[in-house]
Amino acid sequence: MALENNEIQNKLTQTFGDKVRNFHQERDLFSFEMDAEINTAVILFLKNDDALRFNFLTSLFTIHFPDDPDVNRQFAVTYLMHNWYENKRIRIRTFISSEKPEIKTISNIFPAANWMERESYDFFGVDFKGHQQLKRILNMDEMISHPMRKEFPMEDSGRTDKDDRFFGRTTINL
Questions:
Q1: 143 has which bridge partners?
Q2: 16 neighbors 34 (Cβ within 8 angstroms)
Q3: Beta bridge partners of residue 94, listed in sequence order
Q4: Are 99 and 37 contacting, i.e. CB atoms less than 8 angstroms apart?
Q5: pTM of the shown model
């Protein structure tokens, strides 16, 4: 019997109550939100439940929403998981605060999360608590900013090789 969305939703709500919510189908992807403090419990449950068997972490990434007035929803950590037996995919999103962007690591559950969490740390500054080697992965260690945050400047205004005249971006006074 195929794994249905309502079965996934029922199991999750029975186990975690209102800490999991906003279940919906987007194209072929079943999605929901969870509270940040239960991320490892939900991921373990989805992986180890005999009926669910979401035993593959496809991706983990962060998105920055600086215009959201609620500072507790300005960073979204998203997990994409796959059940190979049923060929079923799900998306789990959790929001974390921009004032203290931190969440528990899942690299001890899925070793592949190691580099994905390091990338989110490097580019967004998300602190994955319990990560065994949380350090920059692509940017220089000396870098003090996180370049994928929306407040990061697009270009260095002091660069002399970016003169607009050389790229056809001149102001024409009529």
A1: none
A2: yes
A3: 77
A4: no
A5: 0.85
Residue given tokens 């005999």 in the structure block: 50
Query: Per-residue pLDDT for 170 more than 90?
Result: no
Q: With contact defined as beta carbons under 8 Å apart, do 53 and 83 qualify?
A: yes
Domains (range + CATH), the chain = 15-146 (3.30.460.80)
Burial label for 101, CB within 10 Å (0-12, 13-18, 19+), is buried
Q: Give 99's contacts (C-beta < 8 A, 6+ positions apart).
A: 71
* pLDDT tens per residue, range 55-97: 999 999 999 998 889 989 999 999 999 999 999 999 999 999 9
The b-or-e profile of 21-30 (16+ CB within 10 A means b, else e) is eebeeeeeeb
Yes or no: say if 54 and 11 are a contact pair by the CB < 8 Å rule: no
Which tokens hold the place of 8?
Answer: 């996934």
User: What gap in Å lies between CA 116 and CA 120, rounded to an integer?
Assistant: 6
Specify the range with the lowest mean pLDDT, choosing from 47-61, 116-130, 151-165. 151-165
